[in-house]
Amino acid sequence: xxxxxxxxxxFAAGIAIAGCMLLLSHPAHCINPAxxxxxxxxxxxxxxxxxxxxxxxxxxxFGAIELxxxxxxxxxxxxxxxxxxxxxxxxxxIREQGPVRGVMMTADRLMRDTVFTVPGxxxxxxxxxxxxxxxxxxxxxx
Length: 142
Fold this sequence. Notes:
Layout: H1 8-25, H2 56-76, E1 82-83, H3 86-97, H4 99-112, E2 124-125, E3 131-132
Parallel strand pairs: 1-3
Antiparallel strand pairs: 2-3
Helix pairs in contact: 2-3, 3-4
């Protein structure tokens, strides 16, 4: 019976692991086409040439607006006297101007949407009776 030193088994295991890592690190050893992985994914096409939103703050605001548009607004019916609607205005303002300025623009719009708003030089009245007030006309717009 041959007696090994204190590191005999650990050394042999280290050599075996290093050999496996060397074999796995060279992709030329994978000659089988099935071992090449899935086919390349075609590039994504974005609607309007926009990438999906990744800002978590914007996603929270967009989620709140969509919740209002889909769950709360249908219950009470349309009440906004402007075109685009206040929720569509908020969505567009946050998307174009960022969350801080977009929320300020939306708050300004909501404060102006009252029964006391009358046609004037700042508002164009549309044929359907709504006031035309796009994001680009807001004083905070760049």
